[in-house]
Specification:
alpha+beta; 3-stranded antiparallel sheet; two-stranded antiparallel sheet; 7 strands; about 30% helix
Length: about 190
């Protein structure tokens, strides 16, 4: 699960020459917020993803919380983003960090000579990083941990490839029995179908 691993299945890109990578390690932003933000821009075109994150920062659109949604409030904006439960937030810090990573990947693509307008988010992955430890002071002289939950993010942008048009197929499928009959007819020289 690493961008630079050669045999990694998660980020095995078919067209290495048509892709650009970027990553952020030990980012001081909540893992759960970053994961939801990353899933929101997955498979988006680059320009669309950047615009979306800028609108999240400006609180014009929200990030729908799907997995880590315990105690997340509901908002009308979530319905517009395709939420089923109406839960959404505006994780500003995560959106800003992700926007920076996308811009870095975009400049990496420019250096490689890729067409920036046709790039899309092919792969995005968020992993938990090592927690950082602080302490908080409780009643009766006790001390509890006060941990942060940083994360690692990796992004792969890929150029859109033109799909080859499939040949028009016969709309009616024939079964095995009918295929045998047709073969027998051809063998016997019979023309009536």
């Amino acid at each position: 699960h690493c961008v630079y691993a050669t045999n990694c299945r998660a980020c095995a890109v078919k067209e290495v020459t048509k892709s650009a990578k970027a990553r952020g390690s030990d980012l001081r932003t909540h893992f759960k917020n970053m994961r939801e933000t990353a899933m929101a821009i997955k498979k988006m075109e680059l320009a669309e993803a950047k615009k979306y994150l800028e609108e999240v920062i400006a609180m014009r659109r929200c990030i729908v919380f799907r997995r880590y949604c315990g105690g997340v409030g509901r908002t009308a904006q979530a319905k517009n983003e395709g939420s089923t439960n109406g839960q959404g937030r505006w994780p500003k810090k995560s959106a800003e960090a992700l926007l920076g990573i996308l811009k870095n990947a975009e400049s990496n693509a420019e250096v490689k000579g890729l067409d920036v307008d046709s790039l899309s988010v092919y792969h995005i992955q968020v992993n938990r990083a090592v927690q950082q430890r602080r302490r908080t002071y409780r009643a009766h002289g006790r001390i509890n941990p006060y941990m942060s939950s940083p994360c690692h993010v990796e992004v792969i942008l890929q150029e859109a490839t033109e799909a080859v048009k499939k040949e028009a197929e016969n709309p009616r499928r024939i079964g095995a029995k009918e295929a045998r009959r047709n073969a027998a007819r051809l063998k016997n020289g019979s023309t009536n179908a």
